[in-house]
Design brief:
The chain is an alpha+beta fold. It has one domain. It has three helices and three strands, in the order H-E-E-H-E-H. The chain has helices at about 10-20, 70-80, 100-110; strands spanning about 25-30, 40-50, 85-95. Strands 1-3-2 form a three-stranded mixed sheet, with helices on one face. The longest helix has 13 residues, at about 70-80. The two termini are about 25 Å apart.
């Protein structure tokens, strides 16, 4: 994994130049989507050549820049269509109302955040059912 403080527009420009490319999208860290959207919720963060911040460290895993799966899908398509290079990460949260042993998880990871029950999640759904 590339440390997020090293993901900068300057480093991206150099990497593009060194490789003779005009666009790249880099998945830095996270999880593949689980096939059952009722089990986990995913949040996404994008650091692009349009970002005002100096590095991805100022964007990744912050509430201010957190995107839902639908928002991520729309923004990543826009960036790709316009050949605006970007790096992205995601984080998965266990959903409440599933088969997980929440008490055990909370004991092991006291700061663990849970996602709402699927039916109570008001975020827009994407084609595969994730919200």
């Amino acid at each position: 994994m590339i440390p997020s403080k090293l993901i900068t527009k300057e480093n991206a420009k150099k990497r593009l130049e060194d490789r003779g490319l005009d666009f790249m999208a880099i998945f830095v860290s996270g999880s593949n989507l689980h096939p059952n959207p009722r089990m986990y919720k995913y949040y996404w963060w994008i650091y692009s050549m349009e970002s005002q911040e100096k590095s991805a460290a100022e964007v990744f895993y912050t509430k201010a820049y957190r995107l839902t799966t639908k928002e991520f899908e729309e923004e990543s398509i826009r960036l790709q269509d316009n050949k605006i290079s970007f790096a992205y990460v995601n984080r998965k949260l266990h959903r409440l109302g599933t088969t997980f042993d929440y008490k055990k998880l909370k004991e092991k990871y006291p700061d663990m955040e849970f996602a709402p029950v699927y039916e109570d999640d008001n975020d827009e759904m994407v084609e595969n059912g994730h919200k």
